[in-house]
Amino acid sequence: MAIKELEEAALFERIQSSGGKAGILFFTPLCGTCMVGERMLEIAEATGVSTPLYKININYAPKLRDQWQIASVPCLVVLDGGVPLRKEYAMQSAQHLYALLR
């Protein structure tokens, strides 16, 4: 199952309307580590995590990048009610990501 990619405006809308927990993966298309992190998130998602997951290309998300102070990619931002609770830069394992998103 692929993680849905959103543009910055659509992501803002989704965050404002959902109000619940969500995971946002900041990535760049040519980043190998980002691809591995995304694959681990897909595995975590397939095991039944109920947290919605989205991805966004950091190059096209300057407002969120600056507002949330994203330092590098990959970066998984775990939100609750639209507020960042945690930023995870080291995608350690699918099991670790599953535990973060449960």
Automatic annotation (TrEMBL):
<dbReference type="Pfam" id="PF00085">
    <property type="entry name" value="Thioredoxin"/>
</dbReference>
<dbReference type="InterPro" id="IPR036249">
    <property type="entry name" value="Thioredoxin-like_sf"/>
</dbReference>
<protein>
    <submittedName>
        <fullName>Thioredoxin-like negative regulator of GroEL</fullName>
    </submittedName>
</protein>
<dbReference type="InterPro" id="IPR013766">
    <property type="entry name" value="Thioredoxin_domain"/>
</dbReference>
<feature type="domain" description="Thioredoxin">
    <location>
        <begin position="4"/>
        <end position="98"/>
    </location>
</feature>
